[in-house]
Every structure is written in C-alpha cells, then in structure tokens.
Amino acid sequence: MRRFRTGWVTGSIVALLLVPACAVAGAQGPAAPRVFELRDVGRATVPLVGGWQFHAGDDPAWAAPDFDDSAWQSIEVGRPWEGQGHPGYTGFGWYRLHLDMPANGAEDWQLALLSPYVQDACEVYWNGELVGRVGKLPPHPSWYPHQQPAGIPLGALRSGVLAIRVWKAPYAFLSFPDEGGLVGVPQAGSREGVNALVDRAAYENLRSHLFELSEQLFSGLVGLLALLGWLRSRKVRMLGWLALAMVFPIYRILAFEFSQWGSFNVLYGLIGPMVAINNVATWFLLLYLLRLDGNKGLFRWTQIFSATTLCCALVNTVMVCLDWTRLFPRFFLIADVVSTIPVELLELFGVVIFLFAVCKRLDAARWILAVSALLSDLYQAADDISGMGMRWTHWTLATMLEAPLFSIGGNAFSLPGLIGTLLLVSILYVAWRSLVEQSQRQSGLEQEYRSAQELQQVLIPKELPTMPRYAVTSAYRPAQEVGGDFFQLMALPDDGALLVIGDVSGKGLPAAMAVALLVGAIRSTVETTSDPAVVLSALNRMLHGRLRGGFATCQVLRMDGKGNCLIANAGHLPPFLNADEVALLPALPLGLADEVDYELTELRIGAGEQLTLYTDGLLEARNGAGELFGFERIADLVATARDAQQIADAAQAFGQEDDITVLTLTLEAG
User: Fold this and answer.
1) 3-state DSSP: the chain helix, strand, coil percent, rounded to 5?
2) 430: helix, coil or strand?
3) Higher-confidence residue: 505 or 284?
C-alpha cells in the first residue's frame, strides 16, 4: 500500500510538471497563416518581408487560395531555403502569403508584383491563377544566372493569396554553400511603382557596371579590328589570336551581366569552350608578343595543353546538352568536377610562359605585358579554383578577390577589372609595336627585293645579243618579285654563241642571291673556256657547300654558225628540237657533290629548225583542277609557237606556280 501511494505521488508530480510543457508544446504547433496587410501604400511598393508559408515538394492544388497551409513551415524570403532547415535540397518548393487589401481602394489602383531573385525558376499564382513566371520549370527547364527584375501584373486591388512555385536545379560544380528558393524579397504595390523599380534596377545595374561594360565593348572593337586585319593577311597569326582572345569578354558581358538571351544550362555549357578558347588564344598571343614562338619545345607543349583544355571543355558542353538536370544529375556533378579541374589547373600554364619570358631580354613594354599576364593568370586560376566548388570547400578567397576596391560615381572598381584593363592595354601596346616592327621589317625586305630585282635586270638581259645566223627569243616570268631561274647568251668567234640556262632550288630572295652568284661565276669561267662540260664542272666546284643543302640545275650549249651544237647537262630538263625532245646523258645537278664529270652531247640544228629550252616552271604549271601542264602540252605548244613569249603566256594562263623561263633559237637559212 505504501508502495502504491509512493508511486501515485510520484506520478502526480510528473503529471503536474508535464502540464505546462504540453501547453508550451501546443503553443509551438502549426499556427494560423500570417496575413500581410497592404495598406496606405498609395502608388508606392512594399517589400513582402517576414514569414511566408513554405512546403517542399510539388502539388498543383497548393496554388488554390482556399488551400489550408496552416500546417506549413514559416520561412523567410530573401534567404535561401538551405539555411532554413532544408540543406542540400533541390527540386520544387512552394511559398504562400495571404495579402489583405483595403476594401475601399481607388478603382484605378492596379496591383503588381516585382519578381524576386529566385534560384532557379518559378511560377507566380495570384488567387489560383498563373500570372507570371521567371524562367521555365521542368520538364524543359530554363533559368538565368543573373536575373533582371520584372513586373508581374496581378490585376485590380483585392485581397488574396500569393503562391510562388519554385524549382531549384540540381547542383553543378559552379555552386555556393547556401542556395535555393526566394533569395530575393518580392515587392507588391501599384503597377507604376513596380515599373519604376524595374527601371531603377536596370539603371543601377548599368551604372554600376559602366567601367566593365566600356572595357568589354572596347575589347569587342579590338577583336573585330584584329579579325579584319587577320582576314586581310592570314600570315599575321598574332592578329588571329588577338581576335580570339577578345571573344570571351564579349560573351561574358552579354551572358552574365546585361542580358537574358540564354538560360543557365546553355550559358554554362558555353562558358567552358569560351574560357578554353580565351586561355588558348592568350597563350599563343603571348608566345608571339614575347617572341617565344621560336622555342619549339614550349610551342609544342602549348599545343598539347591547348588541345587538352579544349577537349575537357567540349566534354562538359556535351553533357550539358544532354539535359543533365533530368537524366543524370549526380553523374553530371562528378563529371563536371572531373572535366573542369584540369582546365582550372592548366590556367597556371601562363606562369610557365612568364618564366620563359624572364629568361629573354625584354624591353620595358614587354616586361609590363609579361607581368600583367602573370597577374591575370594567377588571379583567374585562384578565382576559378577557389570559387567553382565553394559549396564544398567553403573557401572565401574568390569572394574576397571579386569584392569592389573603390567606387567612383556609383561605379565599382574591383581587382579583376583593374588587372584585365592592365592586361588589355599592355597587349594592345605591344601588339601595336609588333605590327610597327613588322611593317619596318617588311619595308626593309621590300627594299631588298627591289635591289634584287634591279640586280636580276642587270644579270638577266631583256635585250638579247645579236646572233648572225640565229633568231633568238626569250621569256622570263618569276613567280614572286624575284626568281631562281637564270639564262645567259654570250657571242663567240665565228658566228658562234654560248647559251646557259638553269634553275636554283627554292624561291624568293635566297634563290635570287644564288642566281647572282651563278651568273658571276659563269661570266668569269667563260673568259677562260667555252667547253660546256668544263664550264659545268667549274660551276659545280664553286657551288658545292654554298647553297645550304640546295642545288641548281643547269644546261650549257655551244653552237657555231652552221648549226652544230655541243650540250652539257647538269640535271636540267632536255630541250626540244621542233616537237621532239633531245636525248641527253643524265648527270647530277650543281652543288650536290664535290667532283662531278659532265659529258657532252652533239646535236645538229637544220635550217629553219627551232631549239626550245625551258625551266621546270613550264612543265609544272597547274590548273585549278590540279592538272599539270605536262610534256605532251609542251610538245604540242613548241611545235606551233614560234616565239618564247607565246609559250610562257600559255603556261601562265594554265596556272603558274613556279618561275618560268623559255628560250627559242631558230637557225635561219643562208
């Protein structure tokens, strides 16, 4: 009995203690929905701050004004839902707020809502009716990384329920620790007041980014001018890389600051290739501007890292295009991280380029470029590495780096903007100096070409010496300003003549200089001998080791006034006698071996017959279809054409690719 009484007393005490606790627990249970009173607003707007009713999940019935949401959680707008009891949640969530309006408001008072900043898309319902949206919800979602405020008309003034259906996309690598839901505060009021807020937000956004916008537009203009310059002269690769390096700034300003021309998944898919193209173009641009393009090892590694960067970026883009939000969100997150981290680490390759530049003697302008490129590279790598996965690392370095340093007239200036401007100015200045230097080198080269042309005009005669028994014509058509073909015609006693024709390997100025050397050697050699074989042997000894791996074909003919001809050949194409090719003994071209013996071939030219000599530019003329002029066309042509100019004109019209030289000798009757 005592034991029973003791238990009863103990139970009574516990019961008395639990009564207040139960009362408190009952007070903390589901409360009545909060009613927001919208009174005495006039033409202004009111932020809808405070607690809203919230429920994770999705049900179209939750848009109805008479739906009982008293059991829902009370949550604040202007803060992500992750920090309010829903960590890591993605998908749908509903916000509801009951608005109480004055019953005697002005009849022309039109209610409107300023759309909040939402992560990531939403639909707005007023008294159960869909009145507006931000982005587009699944099954085909579309949302914007930087949303611009917009007005959503709600109609005539009346009380009702505002329901906002929010969707948060699955996480990508570019995400932050606290996300999801109405991260901005909606505002309600008159349509005029809401429109004024929209206009003011657009103005403030433009004013605060005026410096950045100006820089990006200037970059775009520079890129356009560089592209036009590169299209005019494809050999100036620096202009092509400069044009590509200016693509990303324009993309960034259009995609992330002032426009909603593309949803997040599109922009996120494109940002990888854009960043990769920007990095690759900047690397190659620095190689050219810092005069490191001659370093074959560095150039090769730049190509390898460029290909790796572009491949990783394209892999990421392909995955985004496969609707990762619906098909494979978890796999995409892992693949996004795996394909992005190598690109971020490779951004540090600019440091390697800087170290190579330090080993060279740079002028002041290029030193500024190297240092500004280093700062830009270090900042970009630090910002991307610390900012892309901030959700998991909780690193705050990217936020600190992007914070404004100072402002002028409401326009914020930050570290990335200042570094980018320094890099842009230094690139433009060094690029301008490089173009000036290249123009000066080109002028000097053109002067050298003019001098070489004048020299060739002296060495290769336009007017041939008179030969008593022969009618001689010639045609000389270099493929460039100066050529590697040559010929000489020198009179001998007894109405004879010595004819030399040849072709130096290569084109342009080096070939022209070799021609000058050969012509001088020919004239000095002929002073002591007129034997074609001896002349070729002397020329071969003189050229051996002087053509840097090149060679020259040559043919020497000695003829008398009766049509008797001796020919020595050094790898040159045999001549045509009328329409028949003359058979010559084979021999090495000049300059390939130290001692070469050349043999003579005898030939008899009859009265009225024509001997045609030419260089391989005639044989190798090529038309648009890739067809060679060939021996058959040459045979048909020399059989009918009685002038070297006609033969050269026919080859040029067919398609000249190399120097063309043609000589014809016709023995006159007498």
Assistant:
1) 45, 20, 30
2) helix
3) 284
Alpha helices (H) in 180-246, listed in sequence order: 191-208, 210-232, 237-245
Within 8 A by CB and 6+ apart from 146, the residues are: 256, 257, 260
Query: Residue 555's pLDDT is what?
Result: 94
pLDDT reading at 42 higher than 90: no
Q: For tokens 């809401």, name the residue.
A: 194
Confidence band for 4, pLDDT divided at 50, 70 and 90: very low
CB neighbour list of residue 419: distance below 8 Å, 6 or more residues apart:
372, 375, 376, 379
Is 460-667 a CATH 3.40.1190.10 domain? no
Q: Are strands 35-37 and 91-100 parallel, antiparallel or unpaired?
A: parallel
Query: Which amino acid is residue 401, in one-letter code?
Result: L
What would the two tokens of residue 83 be? 């920090």
pTM of the model: 0.65
What is the distance between the alpha carbons of residues 113 and 409, in angstroms, rounded to a whole number?
30
Assigned architecture for domain 35-204 = Sandwich (2.60)
Residue 428 neighbours by CB under 8 Å, 6+ apart: 222
**Of the ranges 125-129, 244-248, 314-318, which is most confident?**
125-129
pLDDT digits (tens, 9 = 90+) for 511-562: 777 888 888 888 888 888 889 999 999 999 888 888 777 899 999 999 888 8
CA dist 567 → 245, 536, 556, 601, 602 (Å): 61, 11, 6, 5, 6
Contact (Cβ atoms closer than 8 angstroms) between residue 509 and residue 574: no
- Mean pLDDT on 261-268: 74
The secondary structure element, H or E, covering residue 665 is strand 660-667
3-state DSSP assignment of residue 124: strand
Token pair recorded at residue 128: 């159960």
- Burial of 312 per CB tally in 10 Å (0-12, 13-18, 19+): buried
pLDDT tens for each residue of 17-29? 333 333 333 333 4
**Distance (Å, rounded) from C-alpha 367 to C-alpha 364?**
5
**For residues 111 and 123, is the Cβ–Cβ distance under 8 A?**
no
For residue 508, count other CB atoms closer than 10 A to its CB: 17
Q: Do 35-204 and 460-667 agree at the fold level?
A: no
Q: Before 139, cis peptide (omega within 30)?
A: yes
**13 pLDDT more than 60:** no
C-alpha radius of gyration, the chain, whole number: 43
Q: What is the residue extent of each domain of the chain?
A: 35-204, 209-439, 460-667
- Residue count (the chain): 670
Average pLDDT over residues 45-61: 93
The answer to whether the CB of 208 falls within 8 A of the CB of 410 is yes
Count of CB atoms situated within 10 Å of the CB of 322: 11
Q: What pLDDT score was predicted for residue 577?
A: 92
